[in-house]
Write a structure and sequence with these properties.
- The protein is α/β, with parallel strands linked by helices.
- It has two domains: 203 residues, Alpha-Beta Complex (Spore Coat Polysaccharide Biosynthesis Protein SpsA, Chain A), CATH 3.90.550.10; 88 residues, no CATH class.
- 49% of the residues lie in helices and 18% in strands.
- It is built from 13 helices and nine strands.
- Strands 1, 2, 3, 4, 5, 6, 7, 8 and 9 form a nine-stranded mixed beta sheet that branches.
- Strand 2, helix 2 and strand 3 form a beta-alpha-beta unit.
- Helix 8 runs antiparallel to helix 9, helix 9 runs antiparallel to helix 10 and helix 10 packs across helix 12.
- The termini are far apart.
Length: 340
C-alpha cells in the first residue's frame, strides 16, 4: 500500500508535482533528487514512486523525505513504468505534472522555465525542452537531443518521439486525468503513445528551446535487444490503431524505417558499426522515404557509409573532432539562450 504523504508546510497546493518512477534506482536516485531540490522555482512536491524495487531505492527516498517535506514516497508492487507514473499522477496535487526518470537530472532553471512557458501559453497542454546526454558518472558526453521546432501532430509523433525522453515533459494535471494517463499495457514507447494520443485529440505542445534535462546513458543502453524493440513498436502501433487506424495503416512502413534509423544511430554511437550498417539497410528497405522524412536519416546513413570506407585511425580522429565541435556549438547555443 502507498505510504501516506506528509502534510506540507503550506495549505495551498504546489505549482508542480514532480513524478519520479523508480525501479532499482539506488545508484542514481540521490543525484536525481538533488537536481530537483536545486530548482530555482521551489514551488513543487516531488513524488517518488518506488515500483517494487529490490535494492535500497525506498530507503534513499525516505531519507530525502525526512529532510525535505516536499518529497513524498509511494511504495507499490512492481507494475512497470506506465503504472508507476499513473500512481504518481493519482497522488499529485500540483497544477502541472513534471516527469523525471530516476536516473536522469534537471538543470536548476527547469521548472522556472516551464512555469513561464505554460503561464504564457494557456492553450498548451504540454511543454517540453531539450536534453543533454550524461554518462554513468554524470559527466556530459557531448551528445544532445535537440529536436526540430515543428508543429507536432499525431502522425509526426507516431513516427518519432520529438520530446526525446521521459524527463523533458511537463503536462497540465487535468489533461492527464482526462486522458487516463499512460497506457499500462505497454512496456516500451510508453511516453510516445501518450503524446500521439494527446495530439490526436487536439492538445497542443509548447517547446521550451533550452537544454534543461540531462539524460543518463548506461553501458549497453544504446544496444537494446532488437527483437524487444521491434515487439514494442508493434504493440505501440496496435494501441495507436485503436483511435487512429488510418494513420497507422498508411505510416506503418515508415514507422518501422524510423525505428531502424534510430537503432542504426544508437549502434553507431555505441561503436557497433556492423549493427549500425544492418539497421541502416533495414531502414531503407522498410521505406526509402525515411531519407526525406527523417532529417537525421541522411546524416546517420552518411556517417555509417564513411565509417565503412575510412581507415579506423583516421575515422576516430574525425569522430573526436565531430564530438568536440558539436559540444562547443551547444555550449554557445545554451549561453545565448540563457541571455535571452
Amino acid at each position: 500500500m502507498p505510504n501516506s504523504p506528509k502534510a506540507t508546510a503550506s495549505s495551498s497546493p504546489p505549482k508542480f508535482s514532480v513524478v519520479i518512477p523508480a525501479y532499482n534506482a539506488s545508484s542514481f536516485l540521490a543525484d536525481c533528487l538533488d537536481s530537483v531540490l536545486a530548482q530555482t522555482d521551489p514551488d513543487f512536491e516531488a513524488i517518488v514512486v518506488n515500483d517494487g524495487s529490490t535494492d535500497n531505492t525506498a530507503e534513499i527516498a525516505a531519507k530525502f523525505a525526512q529532510r525535505d517535506r516536499r518529497i513524498v514516497l509511494i511504495n507499490r508492487s512492481n507494475g512497470g513504468l506506465a503504472a508507476a507514473r499513473n500512481s504518481g499522477i493519482a497522488a499529485a496535487k500540483g497544477e502541472l505534472v513534471a516527469f523525471l526518470d530516476a536516473d536522469d537530472r534537471w538543470c536548476p532553471e527547469k521548472l522556472a522555465a516551464h512555469r513561464q512557458a505554460m503561464d504564457s501559453d494557456p492553450n498548451a497542454s504540454v511543454s517540453y525542452d531539450w536534453a543533454a546526454f550524461i554518462d554513468v558518472k554524470g559527466d556530459r558526453t557531448g551528445l544532445h537531443m535537440s529536436q526540430a521546432r515543428i508543429h507536432l501532430t499525431h502522425e509526426a509523433l507516431l513516427l518519432k518521439n520529438y520530446l526525446g525522453n521521459g524527463s523533458t515533459a511537463v503536462v497540465r494535471r487535468y489533461v492527464l486525468e482526462q486522458a487516463n494517463g499512460f497506457d499500462p499495457s505497454l512496456r516500451r514507447m510508453v511516453d510516445q503513445e501518450l503524446w500521439v494520443r494527446l495530439t490526436f485529440y487536439g492538445h497542443r505542445f509548447h517547446l521550451v528551446p533550452r537544454t534543461l534535462t540531462e539524460y543518463r546513458t548506461h553501458p549497453g543502453s544504446f544496444t537494446a535487444d532488437t527483437e524487444r524493440m521491434l515487439r514494442g513498436l508493434e504493440a505501440f502501433l496496435q494501441q495507436v490503431a485503436v483511435y487512429a487506424p488510418n494513420s497507422v495503416k498508411r505510416l506503418r512502413p515508415l514507422a518501422i524505417a524510423f525505428t531502424h534509423r534510430w537503432m542504426a544511430r544508437a549502434a553507431f554511437v555505441a561503436g557497433n558499426y556492423a549493427a549500425a550498417r544492418q539497421h541502416a539497410r533495414k531502414s531503407l528497405k522498410a521505406s526509402p522515404a525515411v531519407l526525406w522524412s527523417d532529417p537525421r536519416a541522411p546524416i546517420t546513413f552518411a556517417a555509417i557509409a564513411i565509417e565503412s570506407i575510412t581507415p579506423k585511425p583516421l575515422f576516430n580522429q574525425f569522430l573526436q573532432l565531430g564530438h568536440y565541435l558539436t559540444s562547443r556549438w551547444f555550449q554557445a547555443k545554451s549561453s545565448r539562450q540563457a541571455r535571452v
